[in-house]
Write a structure and sequence with these properties.
Elements lengths: L7 H21 L10 H12 L4 H17 L18 H13 L15 H34 L15 H13 L5 E4 L13 H9 L15 H16 L3 E4 L4 H4 L14 H12 L6 E4 L13 H9 L15 H12 L3 E4 L12 E3 L5 E3 L5 E3 L3 E3 H23 L3 H4 L7 E4 L2 E7 L9 E5 L2 H13 L23 H19 L11 H12 L5 H9 L10 H6 L4 H27 L5 E2 L3 H17 L1 H5 L4 H11 L3 E2 L5 E3 L33 E4 L3 H15 L6 H23 L4
Parallel strand pairs: 1-2, 3-4
Antiparallel strand pairs: 5-8, 6-7, 9-10, 10-11, 12-15, 13-14, 14-15
Length: 739
């Protein structure tokens, strides 16, 4: 029984892996004969891949090496070699390599996946959302306008294909032509390409008799119509012997004698039909010949853009020729030159590498307005060419892919399986339906929870896609496309590159250079959401990980594991959140209120007053006085060590902190020691109106406790000392009206 050959996709995938292996070997100086590598060389390669890939990916390299071993005997330049891992399962080899690289044991799926750095993640998402919310409506409207214009272009006439002509009918055509004494046989005026002088020009004669529909009336072909062809030749030679000839020279004979060029009447327009169409088009004064506004690589300024002209006049008709060297197009050239001289033209800028129809420019009135870095507001586009529109459509598609992938945690294959009308609800919340394809031949339809902006991105992708079912597909349904699906890595790189090259015009921030891929969206969002309560179970459900330990497992924990890049980001977010809590205090302070009491109140008031003075002194900041984000930024700068608390806020300054006095010298000044906080005595402590109910409640509790007759004297003394501290704060709250 013959073995079933590997699928084409498997073969190409394996070849790609072997190419990576070969390049790595060249870099290491191991030689081009892979069969001569030592087992340790193969292991070193696997370990190099394990540093930044999950074990399943590493296992594919192990399988690729074993595939090469099987066919090494018939591959040129590869010496047969033994299995470096002695038939150990590829999964075991890969797991051990990844675990060694990570320095840990257990299920390491996801740990080898890098997160996207915060400084790249946020600008990327903001740019994607800007394209979805702000730019996509314009871009899709312009696409529809171009399509309406294209639909109005002339379409080539549908010509009836000629019915097949029988050999008898061709014989009759030869007899009929020879019967006319005015017809003369074209013969060579001199020897040409082996044909003797005076011999008939069989090819030219064939086109003369059939009006360009047949070139092979007299062609000698072995075993095919041999007798008929010889009979036709004999009849022609008889006419030649009678002197019915017209001498001509070489390849130019047909054009000089007015012989029509060969063409299939069922596929192309005749020269006369092309001329008539151009004459009719130029007769309308509103029709202008497109010419170049400036020199480009295709021609000089003022010369016609021929590809656009042919599209305007003849649509997509085949066989259109406006070449000066062709005799059949002379009439067209004369008409075009006459129109140019009369000024029936329109100048178009074709751009550096663009010409023809794709350079056609359309004005963009009503385009969305964006705020630029210089503070001005202007439309993001005033005009657009068809070629530029193609790039913008690709940007919309990439933006939808990035935003949906980042916000839903779907894999690349699952994103590309999203179909039309896929938005639904799941347990009362919005969700998107797709198919989980990873290692699952059944391809079950599953649901991923989404937020409303993701639903909006899906709606934009639906409008963009031409595909009858799927959202992510090539921009046009042209011959040779793969149907559905996109190369996500190329689309992400293209999106980032275009944002950075046009961000000044779009009013967007720069996306720092970095490696960004779809699988990193899952990892990054998992790190962000893992800080929420009960996030492990929710992440396990959204990531579609196997159910273990109440729907959460080690894989989910690995995805949500914090890394240093995002740890710093969360610290900054906490600082910003603290600053936002101070915004309401800033507003009250602007009205002259006492917003806090306690040992650190004076410092807090001074800092708030400083922020107010800064905003009042800067006209631009004063104009943004209602913008809480601007205020929060200034407050975060003024109070960088603010720590929010339930009973007080701490403006941590280590030399003044009561909590630091009991710590060893080497540990002081790093962070507040919450358990040793003295809110009524520490000069870093401030108490606001929101803290007041807790202080008044404690005051009442302490008063009640101090009246307890059975309380031991030492304990009563401690209560009274604590009551004195609390009343210092409550008295101030009452006096300042903070209560």
């Amino acid at each position: 029984m013959l073995a079933e050959p590997a699928a084409f996709g498997t073969v190409t995938h394996t070849c790609q892996k072997l190419q990576v292996i070969w390049r790595w070997g060249c870099e290491q100086g191991l030689g081009q004969d892979l069969g001569r590598w030592d087992p340790q060389d193969w292991q070193s390669f696997i370990e190099s891949q394990a540093t930044d890939r999950e074990w399943r990916t590493v296992a594919t390299y192990v399988n690729g090496i074993r595939m090469l071993r099987k066919v090494a005997a018939v591959v040129t330049g590869v010496t047969p070699f033994e299995d470096p891992w002695e038939d150990e399962p590829a999964a075991h080899v890969a797991r051990k390599a990844v675990e060694a690289a990570l320095g840990s044991v257990g299920d390491s799926e996801g740990l080898s996946t890098e997160t996207i750095a915060p400084e790249t993640w946020w600008p990327l998402l903001r740019a994607a959302w800007a394209y979805i919310r702000t730019f996509a409506p314009d871009i899709l409207d312009w696409r529809d306008a171009f399509e309406r214009e294209l639909a109005q272009l002339p379409q080539p006439p549908v010509l009836e294909r000629l019915r097949p002509v029988s050999a008898d009918e061709l014989d009759e055509a030869v007899k009929r032509w020879l019967a006319d004494p005015c017809n003369r046989v074209p013969v060579h005026a001199r020897e040409w390409m082996g044909a003797p002088e005076g011999s008939p020009m069989w090819l030219t004669l064939s086109k003369m008799i059939t009006d360009g529909a047949n070139m092979h009336l007299f062609a000698r072909r072995k075993g095919r119509l041999a007798a008929r062809v010889e009979a036709r030749r004999a009849a022609v030679l008889k006419a030649v012997a009678q002197g019915r000839v017209q001498p001509a020279y070489g390849a130019s004979a047909g054009s000089r004698m007015g012989v029509p060029a060969y063409q299939s009447k069922g596929r192309k327009l005749s020269a006369r039909e092309l001329d008539d169409a151009l004459r009719k088009w130029l007769a309308d004064p509103d029709n202008k010949i497109p010419v170049r506004a400036a020199d480009d690589r295709y021609g000089k300024a003022g010369t016609p853009i021929v590809s656009m002209l042919t599209r305007l006049v003849w649509g997509k008709a085949r066989g259109v020729n406006v070449d000066r060297r062709a005799i059949t197009s002379r009439a067209r050239i004369e008409m075009i030159e006459k129109a140019l001289a009369a000024g029936q033209v329109v100048a178009l800028g074709s751009g550096k590498d663009r010409a023809g129809w794709r350079a056609r420019v359309m004005p963009c009135p009503g385009a969305a307005t964006v705020s630029l870095a210089d503070g001005s507001n202007r439309p993001w586009r005033t005009q657009i060419s068809y070629d530029e529109l193609t790039d913008e459509l690709r940007m919309v598609r990439a933006a939808c892919y990035v935003f949906i992938g980042a916000m839903s945690m779907m894999r690349d294959s699952e994103l590309q399986e999203i179909q039309r009308d896929s938005v639904t609800t799941h347990f009362g919340s919005p969700a998107v339906a797709s198919r989980k394809t990873k290692k699952d031949p059944a391809r079950p339809e599953l649901l991923w929870w989404i937020i409303e902006p993701v639903a909006e991105a899906i709606a934009v992708a639906e409008r963009l896609s031409w595909h009858p079912t799927h959202l992510f597909a090539p921009l046009e349904a042209t011959q040779g496309t793969r149907g559905r699906g996109i190369e996500s890595s190329n689309e992400i790189d293209f999106f980032i590159r275009k944002i950075n090259s046009s961000r000044d015009r779009l009013g967007l921030e720069k996306i720092p250079d970095g490696y960004v891929r779809s699988h990193m969206f899952r990892r990054t969002m998992s790190v962000i959401t893992s800080r929420e309560p009960d996030s492990e179970i929710a992440l396990g459900l959204q990531l579609k990980h196997a159910a273990r330990r109440a729907l959460a497992n080690h894989t989910t924990q690995a995805y949500g594991q914090m890394d240093t890049k995002w740890a710093k980001e969360f610290d900054r977010q906490l600082e910003h959140a603290a600053a936002l809590r101070l915004v309401e205090l800033l507003k009250a302070r602007r009205n002259g209120e006492i917003v806090a009491v306690g040992p650190g109140a004076a410092r807090l008031h001074a800092g708030l007053d400083k922020v107010i003075d800064t905003m009042d002194a800067d006209p631009q900041l004063r104009a943004q006085i209602a913008d809480e984000q601007v205020e929060a930024t200034l407050l975060a700068s003024e109070f960088p060590e603010l720590h929010l608390g339930t009973i007080n806020h701490c403006m941590f300054d280590a030399p003044q902190a009561e909590c630091q006095s009991e710590l060893p010298a080497g540990q002081r000044g790093q962070a507040p020691l919450i358990g040793a906080c003295e809110p009524a005595r520490c000069r870093n402590s401030v108490i606001t109106r929101k803290h007041a109910p807790i202080w008044f409640a404690e005051e009442e509790d302490l008063k009640t406790m101090a009246k307890e007759p059975r309380l031991a004297p030492p304990r009563r003394e401690a209560v009274l000392i604590r009551l004195d501290d609390v009343q210092r704060i409550t008295r101030a709250l009452r006096e300042e009206g903070a209560a």
